[in-house]
Structures are given as structure tokens and as C-alpha cells.
Amino acid sequence: MEFKYSYPVDPSEYDDDGLCRGYPLRNHRDAELVDLGTLRAQENWRRLVGPLGIYKGGLGPKFNFVSLALPECLPDRIEVIAYLNEMVFIHDDGVEDVSKQQGDELNDVLVDGFRLERILSAQSVKNGKRKMQQDLVKKLVAIDKERALKAISSLTEYFAKGSGRRNHTEFRTLDEFMRYRILDVGKMYWVGCLTFAMALTIPDDEMESLSELCHPAWLSCGLINDLYSWPKERDAAAKKGVGHVNNSVWVLMKEHKIDETEAIARLRGRIRVCFVQHQQKMKESNDRTDISADVKRFMEAMQYSMAANVVWSRSCPRYNEGRQFNERARGDKVRAQTTAASDKPYRKTRCE
């Protein structure tokens, strides 16, 4: 892959927690736009939907999730992708805190709100969440209509099939749980994001091959998320008096009758295997002549998303209580600019 928009991050600058040694990590050169898109989404949600408090989202002490996960995102797309990703984070947190019926209703609202015939009409909407959806889609379509429509289709599938739909189901085995978890963690959502971000075209007849080749990557996404979100989810379940936790650690504990320490050790082992398997799948795809160049580029890009998931999750305030947001100087500058803008009368910006 030719690198135009990112730079390599020195291993001394981050902690890979012993999970992805040898995997490269890169950061987008326009990371300040990622911060801006993230904070714009938060401010618009507060203004149009409801209070958020001090929201943690995609920010981190050194790196924003999107700037690491999509280091070769085209510069004109990075801010709007960050905006979209933050909306998804906010929504997912809301689904986690309510009953199954309420969560399904929240997901159904977003599925309905992403109907293209409604969004692309000239009719304005009064509902705050739908206004955010409408403005977002119009921005995506203005940049790249063909890939935007596919991205929205993938996003809608995520809200319809994943996004906490079975958070209240008690899965008996890890294999059973992961078949759902791959959808829940956003497999189709990330396909839409990555293809739009890098202007990739995956033919419909190659989607099955892509799904099979990227299976270790999708599996790693769910397992990594469960590893680092476990303390937060465990404690939240205990406070609510809920009898189970929708997390791989919990499933392993119950399936194998082991304690938390052993379950975490097994989970970490599975994650390492996923990284090895993805490298093998990348080599396999590069040697094949029956798949397109963009499938191969997608495979290569996923290795950066996988490493980013570890590094960001390891340190982010979203999963690590007490951690600061962006400690780097530009983070303070962007937050100051956004706060100042939010105190003024509303005016349209790039992501609004």
C-alpha cells in the first residue's frame, strides 16, 4: 500500500499490551480534523438530541480512534467519518443502558431515519436525531454518492442486525456468542466506513470472499472490545443487579467454569491467534488472482484497524476510568475552538 496521508507511530509511543507485536501502527496526518469531527458530533447531539455530560467517545490521551483505525482515509473524508463514528458510539452507549425493548426501539428509529428516500428529499426534519442523520448522509453523498449509498446500506444493516439487538441473550458458548458479536461489533458498519474512507470498490460478487478472508479480523474486533470493556460492563451489570454480562469474558467463565483471571488469559490468547491468522489471510489474498486489487487493499487496511483497536482501547477514557481525554496540545486547542463555537449562535460547519 502506498502511504500518502499517514505516518508510522514509533512503538515507544504506545502500549500494544503484548497482543499485536509486529503489527504496524500509523496515524493520520490530519488527526486534528478527526478531533474536530468527533467534537462536532458531540456538540450537535447536545444541541439537537439531548445532554451527554462529559462524553468520552472516540477521544484518547494521544490518539483518536478514527485517526489510527483509518490512517489512509482520504483527507476530504476524515472529518465526516469521525463525525459518523462518534454518532455510533453515542447511540451504542444509549442502547447498552436500556431494556431490550427500548434498545430495539432506538435501533428502529435509526434504521427508519436512514431511509434514503426521506433523507435525500428536500423536506426538512424537526426531530434532532433525524436531522443529524439527514445532514450526515447529505454530506457523504456530496463527497462520493456511489460509496456513500453503500456505506449507509451497511450502516443500516448494522443497526438492524447488531447494535445490541441481543445484549440480553445469555449465550452458552463463545463460538455461539461470536457469531452474533461479529455483527454486534459492527462488521458491516466498518466495511461501509473503510470503503468510503479509502474510495475502495468491492464488487458484490466478492463480498463473500472478503467476509471469509477478514473473518479473523472481525473476530478480533469483538474480542478486543470485550477484553477492554469488561471491567466497565462487569461493574455496570453488578450495579443494575443483572444476572449476566454480554461479554466474551463472562461467556468463557460460564462455558468452562473458570474464574475471571483464567477467562481473560484465554481471551488474550484468542486475540493473538486472530492477529496471526489475519497475516496468513493477507498472504493468501495477495497470492490469489481471482480477487480484485481493492479486496487486497481492504485486507491490508484492516491490519491497521486491528492494531488501532488494541492501542486505542488500551488507553482510551471510554474504557479506562480516570484517563484524560486528549493530552496533546492540539486536542486542547480544538476543544477550546469547539467550546467557543458552541457558545455562539448556530452556524453551519463542514460536518453540520
TrEMBL record:
Residue runs in coiled coils: none
Stretches the record annotates as Disordered: 323-352
Domain of life assignment: Eukaryota
Compositionally biased intervals (Basic and acidic residues): 323-335
InterPro entries per record: Isoprenoid_synthase_dom_sf (IPR008949)
Gene3D superfamilies: Farnesyl Diphosphate Synthase
Protein name: Geranylgeranyl diphosphate synthase
Organism of derivation: Podospora didyma
